[in-house]
Amino acid sequence: MIPGKYRSVSGRATNNVNCGLHLVIQTSSLPEKNKVEFKLHKETPSFPGRLLQHDLERNYSSRQGDGRVISPSPRNKSSCISSTTNVTELCGLEMKTTTSSLSAFGDSSIQTPSKSRIRQGCHSAGPNVSGDHINLVSSSMPSFPILQRSSEEKILYSDRLTLERQKLTVCPIIDGEEHLRLLNFQHNFITRIQNISNLQRLIFLDLYDNQIEEISGLSTLRSLRVLLLGKNRIKKISNLENLKSLDVLDLHGNQISKIENVSHLCDLRVLNLARNLLSHVDNLNGLDSLTELNLRHNQITFVRDVDNLPCLQRLFLSFNNISTFESVCCLADSTSLSDITFDGNPIAQESWYKHTILQNMMQLRQLDMKRITEEERRMASVIAKKEEEKKRESQKQSLLKEKKRLTINNVARKWDLQQHRVTSIAANQDRKDSDSPSQDPCQVDGSTISAFPEETGSLDSALSNALQGLSVTDTHLVEVDGDTLSLYGSGALESLDRNWSVQTAGMVTTVSFTFIEFDEIVQVLPKLKIKFPNSLHLKFKETNLVMLQQFNALAQLRRIDQLTIDPQGNPVVSFTLWKYYVLFRLSHFSMQKINGTEVTQNDMIMAERLFGILAHVASSELPQYRLISILGDARKKQFRYLLETKGKKPGVVSEENNDSKRLVGENTNRATLNYTTRDFYNEKLEEIKEKKKFCKMYIEDLVKEATEINMKNEALQKLWPQMFIELVRDAVIEIRNKSSYMKLCLQQITDQK
Amino acid sequence: MLSPERLALTDYEYLAQRHVLTYMEDAVCQLLENKEDISQYGIARFFTEYFNSVCQGTHILFREFSFIQATPHNRASFLRAFWRCFRTVGKNGDLLTMKEYHCLLQLLCPDFPLELTQKAARIVLMDDAMDCLMSFSDFLFAFQIQFYYSEFLESVAAIYQDLLSGKNPNTVIVPTSSSGQHRQRPALGEASMLEGVEASLFYQCLENLCDRHKYSCPPPALVKEVLSNVQRLTFYGFLVALSKHHGINQALGALPDKGDLMHDPAMDEELERLVVRSRLHRTSRQHRAQEPGTFGFHRRDKLEAPERVPSASAPTPSPYRWEPRESCLVSATPLGPYLLHELHPRPQKGLKS
Questions:
Q1: Where is the composition biased (Polar residues) (chain A) (predicted)?
Q2: Best A546, A583, A621 residue to mutate vs chain B (most B CBs within 10 Å)
C-alpha cells in the first residue's frame, strides 16, 4: 500500500497534495448567459490520475479523507461521464469537471472562482449586514438573518450562492433567490436545515461540515439532485420522501447506524455512507440506479441485498469488520459490480482472500484499487479449483466419516440387540430351569422388554434423519487406516476373503475387532494368518470374550506382539487371572504388551507358576490316543518329535538341539489346551452322542452275548460232574462182565469187516 | 470275589452298576473316534492305555461333561485333576469370583455347566453376595460336595423342603431337576424363631434316603456325626458342615486334607523345572532377537540357573521360588492375614460361618 504503487497504476505521478479539489466547477465566465456552466472535460485523462493519486495519498497515508468517493479507473469514466452528463443536461448547465466528478462529493470541497466574491457577498449577507431587509421577516422569525445579494452579483451568479465558512449557526432567510440552483453552506455551524423551502429549483445543496442532527426541511425541494450532508451529526436517514430525483446523497461522517428510508430513491446513483456506525448492510431494495456505494470505515460485519442493486458498479467496503466471505456472499450474485475494496477488513488478511473473491466474482475488474489481470484470474481459478477439490475431498472424507459413524452405530445397535436377545433368552432359560419364587420372572421379563423399544426408538429417531441417503442395511464396516485394519460387525469378517493387495496386506500390523462374536473371529483366524502375515497387534472390543479357554484359539496365529482386550463387552478382562493365562497360553509368541502394559519377566514366570502344571498335566498325563486326537493332524509331526525326545533326558541332547526341541515341546504341551467354538463343540457333542448310542447298543449286545455264553458255560459246569459220573457208571456197567464184553467187541470188529 | 451282592444281580446288571459298561462303551466310542490313529499302534495297546488312564484318573481330562459326571470315579478324578491343575492358583493366594472358578473348570471341561458352579458358590456365599471373592479351598471343598453328591443333594433339598412345610418326609421323594426350589427360605416370622429343621428328624429321613438312594451318598455314619452336633440346622448349614467335614473328604478320597491342600511336592518339583525352562526359553528368544553385546550379561545370569536344576532336586535360591510351607506364605505375601484364616475359622463378608 505504498502510494508509489498507485502512482504507477494511475500513470501520473503528480504529487499535488495541496490540491483539495475534487470537483472543479468553473464558471464559464459567460455572463451574458447568466448560467453556471459545468464543463465536462471529457478529454482530460490526466485528471483522474491526479485525483486518484491525491485521494489515495490521503486515504492511505493518513487513513482519513473518507468522504472521498473514489472512481479512479479510467474504465469507469464512461459511466461516470454519462451520469454527469445527465446532470448537466438536466440542469442545463455545463459542468466543468473531471471524470471522477463524483468523488468530489465525498470531499465536498467545491470551489468556484467566484468564491472570494461570494464570500464577500456572504459577508455582506451576514447578520450584521443588510439590515434594511430585517424588517420584512422580523415579525415572523426575528432571529433569522436575512440575506440579500446585490443585484449585480445576482446577475452574475444568478443560480448559485456560496455561504462557506460564514460561522452561520442557522440558515439565513434567503429572499428573492427563487431561481437558485446551487447552494453551499460548507463549514458552518448550522444545526438545523431551515428557511430554504422556498428554493424549489435547488438542484445542489451542500451542507458539508455543519452540526445538523436531523435531516429536515427538505420536503419542498423536489428537484434536488445532489445533497451533501457529510460531516454532520445525523443519526438517522429520514425525511427524504419527496426528494425523488436525488442523484447523489452524501452522508459520510455522521452517526448513522442503519440504512433505512432510502428505498424510494430510484434515481440515486451515488450513496456515501462512509465513516458512520453501520454494523451491517441491508435495506437496499429500490435503489435501482445506484452505481456507487461507499461504506468505508464502518463496523460492517455482513452485507446483504447488494445483489438487488442492478446498476451497482463500485462498492467500497474498506476498513470494516468483514471476516468471512460468507458474510458478503451476496456480492457474488451481483452482475454489475466491477470494482470493490475490502482492504482493512479481517478478510483481506486471509490467505484465501484474493482468489476466493476473484473466483466468486468473475465480473470484477478491480479489487482493492488494483486492476485484476488475466494472470491473477487464472491463478485464482486454479487455486479455487484446487480448493474445490480439497473441499470435495474433505467433504467426501467427512461423508465417509459420517457414514462410518452411522455404520458403527448401526452395528453397535445390532450387536446390542443381539446381546439383549442372548441375555433375555438366557434369562428365560434360567427362569424355565429354575422355577424359583425368589427370582421374580415378571421383573426380568419387564426390564428386558422395556429396554428394547426404548433404545431402538431413540436410536432410530436420532439416526433416521442422518441416515437418509446412506444405506441403513450396512451391518458391518471394514476400514484400513494406515497399519490398522478395523472390522466392525460380523459381516466384516467376510472381507478377509477379499483379495487384498500385497502392499496393504503387508502394511497391516494391527487388526481390531469390534462388535463381533469371538467365536466367529476364531473361525477366520486361519484366514487372517494367511492374508495378513504381519499382523502383530490384535484388538478386541465388544467381542464377548467370556472364558479363559477362548484365548487358546489365538495360539494358532503366527505371531502376536500385542494384545488389547477392551473391557467393554469382554467380561473375561474382569478376571484376576486372564492376563497370566494369556501369557501362559501364548507364551510362544513372547508377547510384548497386553492391554498396553509391558510384559515383564516376572509376569511370564508368574504365568508359568500359575498354569504350568495344567500344561504339564495336559501333556504328560493324557493317554496317547487322546493327545493325538486333540492335537489334530497339523500338530502330529511335532508331537512325534516330542515323543521321540520325551524319553531322553534333557542333559543328553546337545545344547542347540535342546533349545529347539524345548520350543517344540513347549508348544505341544500347551497345544492340548485348545478352544472349539460353542457351535462346533455342540456339534461335536451331538456326534459323540450318536456314537455313544451306537456304542451302547453294541456293547449291550456284546455283553448280553457274553453273559449268555457265560450262563451256558456255568450251566454246563454245573451239569458236567453229574454227566461224568453217569458216563462212568454206564461204562463200568458195560464192562463189568469181561468175557461177554470181549465177545461183543469181537463181534463188532467182525461186523465191520 | 463272589460277593453276595454279585449273586443277587445278573451279570449285566452287575456290570452296569459297577460302571464297567460305561467304560467299555466309552472305550469303544473313543476307538471309533480315533480309529485311524489307533489302528497305527494297535487296538490292544489302545485298550491298555484307556483302562490304565481310567485307573489313574486322567481319562477325564478335557472330556465332555456328560462323561465326567457319569460315574463316581470320574467325578472323583475330575475333582482331583482340578485340584492338581489349579492348586497353584490357590497357593498364590488369589481370591476369585464364582465366574472365574467356572472358567478354570471349563479349561478342563469345556462344557461344564455354570449351574453347578453357582450351586457350589452358594454353599460358600450368601445369596445376596454371589459376586464375592472366594478362597480356593473354600470353593474346592464346597464344589466337591456339590459335584460329587449332586443327586443326593437334590433329594436332600426336597426332604428339607418337606420338613419345613411340615409334611411327612417319609413319603416318596422325587428329586426334581429344578435348581432354585430349595433356595426358598422359611417365612420370615417363623424363621426368626426356629430356623431350619430339627436335626434328628432330618437325620432319620437322610438315613432312609441313603438306604434307598442309587447314587452315591456320603457315609451315613458321617452324616450322623455331622447332624448330631446340633439341634436344628438349615439346608445350607448342613451343606457347609458337609463340605468342612474331614471324614467325608477322606471317604471321598479325591482331595487331600485341608491342611495339605497346597502340598504336592512332586508337582512343585515339576513346576520348578517348567518355570526354569520357560525362563530359559524366553531369555534365549530374547537373546536371538537382541544383539548379544547388549544383553549378554543378563543372559548369562539366567542361563546359569537351568544348569543347576536338573541335577539338584534341592531348592534353588531363585527369587521367584515359592516356599511350599503355608506358614512361610503367610509372612511372605500381602495376603498373609487372609491365609491365616485358611487355618482358622474366619468371619468374612458374605461367607457363611
A1: 104-115, 436-450
A2: A621
